[in-house]
Amino acid sequence: MVSHGLEQGRVDGDDGQPYSVWIGDNTCITHLALIHGPAYVGNDCFIGFRSTVFNAKVGHGCIVMMHVLIQDVEIPPGKYVPSGAVITTQQAADRLPDAQESDRAFSHHVVAINQALRAGYHCANDVACLTQWQIPAQAVNGGPGNGHRPAAGRLSAAAVAHVQQILRQGHRVGLEYADPRRFKANSWQSGPTLAASQESAAVAQIEQFLAQHPANYVRLLGIDPRAKQRQLEQLIQMPE
Predict the structure, then answer these.
(1) Which residue, 89, 220, 121, 237, is CA-closest to 167?
(2) So where are the chain's domains?
(3) How many CB atoms lie within 10 A of CB 14?
Protein backbone atom coordinates (compact mmCIF):
# COMPACT_ATOMS: atom_id res chain seq x y z
CA MET A 1 0.00 0.00 0.00
CA VAL A 2 0.97 3.66 -0.38
CA SER A 3 0.28 6.36 2.18
CA HIS A 4 0.93 9.87 0.86
CA GLY A 5 0.47 12.99 2.95
CA LEU A 6 0.51 16.65 1.98
CA GLU A 7 1.76 19.31 4.38
CA GLN A 8 -1.24 21.59 3.84
CA GLY A 9 -3.89 18.86 4.35
CA ARG A 10 -4.83 17.87 7.90
CA VAL A 11 -7.32 15.62 9.71
CA ASP A 12 -7.82 15.21 13.45
CA GLY A 13 -6.48 11.93 14.78
CA ASP A 14 -8.07 10.07 17.66
CA ASP A 15 -5.51 11.68 19.96
CA GLY A 16 -6.82 15.12 19.05
CA GLN A 17 -3.72 16.10 17.11
CA PRO A 18 -3.67 17.14 13.41
CA TYR A 19 -2.30 14.67 10.86
CA SER A 20 -2.07 14.42 7.10
CA VAL A 21 -3.01 10.73 7.29
CA TRP A 22 -4.41 8.88 10.29
CA ILE A 23 -4.81 5.07 10.24
CA GLY A 24 -6.40 3.50 13.30
CA ASP A 25 -5.68 0.36 15.29
CA ASN A 26 -6.30 -3.14 13.90
CA THR A 27 -6.91 -1.78 10.40
CA CYS A 28 -5.81 -3.72 7.32
CA ILE A 29 -4.64 -1.74 4.28
CA THR A 30 -4.08 -4.27 1.50
CA HIS A 31 -1.56 -4.22 -1.33
CA LEU A 32 -1.88 -1.57 -4.07
CA ALA A 33 -4.30 0.48 -1.94
CA LEU A 34 -3.64 4.24 -1.78
CA ILE A 35 -4.37 6.38 1.27
CA HIS A 36 -3.77 9.98 0.17
CA GLY A 37 -3.98 12.76 2.70
CA PRO A 38 -5.82 14.47 4.02
CA ALA A 39 -7.37 11.15 4.99
CA TYR A 40 -8.65 9.41 8.11
CA VAL A 41 -9.22 5.64 8.39
CA GLY A 42 -10.66 4.46 11.70
CA ASN A 43 -10.07 1.38 13.85
CA ASP A 44 -10.89 -2.16 12.70
CA CYS A 45 -11.28 -1.19 9.04
CA PHE A 46 -10.42 -3.12 5.89
CA ILE A 47 -9.30 -1.26 2.74
CA GLY A 48 -9.27 -3.62 -0.22
CA PHE A 49 -6.86 -4.15 -3.07
CA ARG A 50 -6.35 -1.16 -5.43
CA SER A 51 -8.77 1.04 -3.51
CA THR A 52 -8.14 4.77 -2.98
CA VAL A 53 -9.09 7.02 -0.07
CA PHE A 54 -8.45 10.73 -0.78
CA ASN A 55 -9.56 13.79 1.19
CA ALA A 56 -12.01 11.56 3.02
CA LYS A 57 -12.84 9.95 6.35
CA VAL A 58 -13.63 6.25 6.76
CA GLY A 59 -15.30 5.53 10.08
CA HIS A 60 -14.48 2.73 12.52
CA GLY A 61 -15.30 -0.81 11.42
CA CYS A 62 -15.84 -0.10 7.72
CA ILE A 63 -15.22 -2.76 5.07
CA VAL A 64 -14.03 -1.30 1.76
CA MET A 65 -13.66 -3.88 -0.99
CA MET A 66 -11.57 -3.85 -4.18
CA HIS A 67 -11.07 -1.08 -6.78
CA VAL A 68 -13.05 1.50 -4.76
CA LEU A 69 -12.67 5.29 -4.94
CA ILE A 70 -13.61 7.26 -1.82
CA GLN A 71 -13.11 11.00 -2.22
CA ASP A 72 -14.36 14.17 -0.51
CA VAL A 73 -16.80 12.32 1.77
CA GLU A 74 -17.19 10.86 5.26
CA ILE A 75 -18.14 7.18 5.42
CA PRO A 76 -20.20 6.49 8.57
CA PRO A 77 -18.88 3.80 10.94
CA GLY A 78 -19.62 0.14 10.20
CA LYS A 79 -20.45 0.53 6.51
CA TYR A 80 -19.74 -1.82 3.59
CA VAL A 81 -18.42 -0.38 0.31
CA PRO A 82 -18.74 -2.89 -2.58
CA SER A 83 -16.03 -3.52 -5.14
CA GLY A 84 -15.82 -0.95 -7.92
CA ALA A 85 -17.88 1.67 -6.07
CA VAL A 86 -17.16 5.35 -6.65
CA ILE A 87 -18.19 7.32 -3.56
CA THR A 88 -17.68 11.02 -4.21
CA THR A 89 -20.87 12.51 -2.76
CA GLN A 90 -22.04 12.45 0.84
CA GLN A 91 -25.45 11.24 -0.32
CA ALA A 92 -23.84 8.12 -1.81
CA ALA A 93 -21.82 7.59 1.37
CA ASP A 94 -24.90 7.82 3.57
CA ARG A 95 -26.75 5.22 1.46
CA LEU A 96 -24.08 2.54 1.93
CA PRO A 97 -25.25 -0.70 3.60
CA ASP A 98 -23.99 -1.93 6.94
CA ALA A 99 -21.14 -4.44 6.92
CA GLN A 100 -22.23 -8.01 7.68
CA GLU A 101 -20.45 -10.68 9.72
CA SER A 102 -19.49 -12.51 6.52
CA ASP A 103 -17.78 -9.32 5.30
CA ARG A 104 -15.83 -9.01 8.54
CA ALA A 105 -14.90 -12.69 8.40
CA PHE A 106 -13.50 -12.12 4.93
CA SER A 107 -11.35 -9.18 6.06
CA HIS A 108 -10.11 -11.13 9.12
CA HIS A 109 -9.19 -14.01 6.85
CA VAL A 110 -7.13 -11.73 4.60
CA VAL A 111 -5.15 -10.63 7.64
CA ALA A 112 -4.62 -14.25 8.67
CA ILE A 113 -3.43 -15.19 5.19
CA ASN A 114 -0.99 -12.27 5.17
CA GLN A 115 0.42 -13.67 8.40
CA ALA A 116 0.78 -17.04 6.70
CA LEU A 117 2.60 -15.42 3.78
CA ARG A 118 4.93 -13.71 6.22
CA ALA A 119 5.58 -17.14 7.70
CA GLY A 120 6.53 -18.39 4.25
CA TYR A 121 9.05 -15.59 3.81
CA HIS A 122 10.60 -16.10 7.24
CA CYS A 123 10.67 -19.88 6.90
CA ALA A 124 11.62 -20.23 3.24
CA ASN A 125 14.44 -22.64 4.08
CA ASP A 126 12.93 -24.31 7.12
CA VAL A 127 9.33 -25.53 6.95
CA ALA A 128 9.54 -26.68 10.58
CA CYS A 129 9.75 -23.07 11.74
CA LEU A 130 6.23 -22.46 10.42
CA THR A 131 4.86 -23.76 13.72
CA GLN A 132 5.76 -20.50 15.46
CA TRP A 133 3.68 -18.59 12.88
CA GLN A 134 0.60 -20.82 12.95
CA ILE A 135 -2.66 -18.93 12.55
CA PRO A 136 -5.07 -19.22 15.50
CA ALA A 137 -8.31 -20.97 14.68
CA GLN A 138 -10.35 -17.89 15.57
CA ALA A 139 -8.48 -15.95 12.85
CA VAL A 140 -9.17 -18.60 10.23
CA ASN A 141 -12.54 -19.96 11.24
CA GLY A 142 -14.09 -16.88 12.84
CA GLY A 143 -14.47 -18.66 16.19
CA PRO A 144 -12.58 -20.29 19.05
CA GLY A 145 -10.61 -23.49 18.68
CA ASN A 146 -7.37 -25.28 19.38
CA GLY A 147 -5.73 -25.52 15.95
CA HIS A 148 -4.70 -23.22 13.13
CA ARG A 149 -6.89 -24.78 10.41
CA PRO A 150 -10.34 -26.35 10.00
CA ALA A 151 -10.83 -30.12 9.94
CA ALA A 152 -9.16 -31.84 7.00
CA GLY A 153 -11.11 -31.44 3.81
CA ARG A 154 -13.39 -28.75 5.27
CA LEU A 155 -13.45 -25.12 4.18
CA SER A 156 -13.27 -22.53 6.97
CA ALA A 157 -16.17 -20.16 7.54
CA ALA A 158 -14.00 -17.22 6.53
CA ALA A 159 -12.98 -18.96 3.30
CA VAL A 160 -16.66 -19.65 2.56
CA ALA A 161 -17.27 -15.92 2.98
CA HIS A 162 -14.46 -15.28 0.52
CA VAL A 163 -16.11 -17.62 -2.00
CA GLN A 164 -19.33 -15.64 -1.53
CA GLN A 165 -17.47 -12.42 -2.29
CA ILE A 166 -15.91 -13.85 -5.45
CA LEU A 167 -19.21 -15.14 -6.81
CA ARG A 168 -21.04 -11.95 -5.82
CA GLN A 169 -18.67 -10.00 -8.07
CA GLY A 170 -19.40 -12.31 -11.01
CA HIS A 171 -15.89 -13.76 -10.88
CA ARG A 172 -14.80 -17.39 -11.15
CA VAL A 173 -13.26 -19.46 -8.37
CA GLY A 174 -9.94 -21.17 -9.09
CA LEU A 175 -7.56 -23.36 -7.11
CA GLU A 176 -3.81 -23.93 -7.04
CA TYR A 177 -1.76 -26.35 -4.95
CA ALA A 178 1.84 -27.04 -3.98
CA ASP A 179 3.75 -29.62 -1.98
CA PRO A 180 6.08 -28.29 0.77
CA ARG A 181 9.05 -28.12 -1.61
CA ARG A 182 7.12 -26.18 -4.23
CA PHE A 183 5.57 -23.97 -1.56
CA LYS A 184 9.01 -22.89 -0.35
CA ALA A 185 9.94 -22.04 -3.94
CA ASN A 186 6.57 -20.32 -4.56
CA SER A 187 6.03 -22.69 -7.48
CA TRP A 188 2.31 -23.48 -7.59
CA GLN A 189 0.54 -26.04 -9.75
CA SER A 190 -2.70 -25.17 -11.47
CA GLY A 191 -5.87 -26.75 -10.16
CA PRO A 192 -9.38 -26.47 -11.56
CA THR A 193 -11.28 -23.29 -12.37
CA LEU A 194 -14.76 -24.00 -11.08
CA ALA A 195 -17.76 -23.66 -13.35
CA ALA A 196 -20.10 -23.47 -10.35
CA SER A 197 -21.82 -20.12 -9.84
CA GLN A 198 -23.72 -21.15 -6.70
CA GLU A 199 -22.01 -21.00 -3.32
CA SER A 200 -23.06 -24.48 -2.16
CA ALA A 201 -21.79 -26.18 -5.33
CA ALA A 202 -18.52 -24.22 -5.30
CA VAL A 203 -17.87 -25.01 -1.62
CA ALA A 204 -18.57 -28.71 -2.20
CA GLN A 205 -16.10 -28.82 -5.10
CA ILE A 206 -13.43 -26.98 -3.10
CA GLU A 207 -13.82 -29.32 -0.12
CA GLN A 208 -13.55 -32.31 -2.45
CA PHE A 209 -10.30 -30.86 -3.84
CA LEU A 210 -8.93 -30.29 -0.32
CA ALA A 211 -9.75 -33.88 0.62
CA GLN A 212 -7.90 -35.10 -2.47
CA HIS A 213 -4.79 -33.04 -1.59
CA PRO A 214 -4.35 -33.41 2.19
CA ALA A 215 -0.55 -33.15 2.01
CA ASN A 216 -0.53 -29.99 -0.12
CA TYR A 217 -0.83 -26.29 0.43
CA VAL A 218 -3.92 -25.06 -1.41
CA ARG A 219 -4.83 -21.51 -2.30
CA LEU A 220 -8.06 -20.00 -3.54
CA LEU A 221 -8.14 -17.65 -6.52
CA GLY A 222 -10.67 -15.03 -7.58
CA ILE A 223 -10.55 -14.73 -11.37
CA ASP A 224 -12.14 -11.93 -13.40
CA PRO A 225 -13.27 -13.70 -16.60
CA ARG A 226 -13.69 -10.48 -18.57
CA ALA A 227 -10.24 -9.10 -17.84
CA LYS A 228 -8.83 -12.66 -17.73
CA GLN A 229 -6.91 -11.71 -14.60
CA ARG A 230 -6.74 -13.07 -11.09
CA GLN A 231 -7.88 -10.57 -8.50
CA LEU A 232 -7.18 -12.41 -5.25
CA GLU A 233 -5.05 -15.23 -3.89
CA GLN A 234 -5.71 -16.77 -0.47
CA LEU A 235 -4.10 -19.72 1.25
CA ILE A 236 -6.89 -22.03 2.50
CA GLN A 237 -4.99 -25.19 3.47
CA MET A 238 -1.67 -25.85 5.15
CA PRO A 239 -0.65 -29.54 5.49
CA GLU A 240 0.08 -31.11 8.85
Answers:
(1) 220
(2) 2-99, 102-237
(3) 13
* Positive/negative CA dihedral, 52, 58, 64, 68: negative
Q: Give 187-229 pLDDT, tens digit per residue.
A: 999 999 998 888 888 989 999 999 899 899 999 998 888 887 8
Q: What is the CATH number of domain 102-237?
A: 3.30.190.10
At residue 22, φ and ψ (nearest 5 deg) are: -120, 125
CATH classification for the domain delimited by 2-99, as one of 3.40.50.720, 3.40.50.300, 2.160.10.10, 1.10.3210.10: 2.160.10.10
- Nearest CA to 22 out of 37, 2, 44, 7 is that of 37
What pTM does this model have?
0.54
- CA quadruple 2, 49, 189, 220: dihedral positive or negative? positive
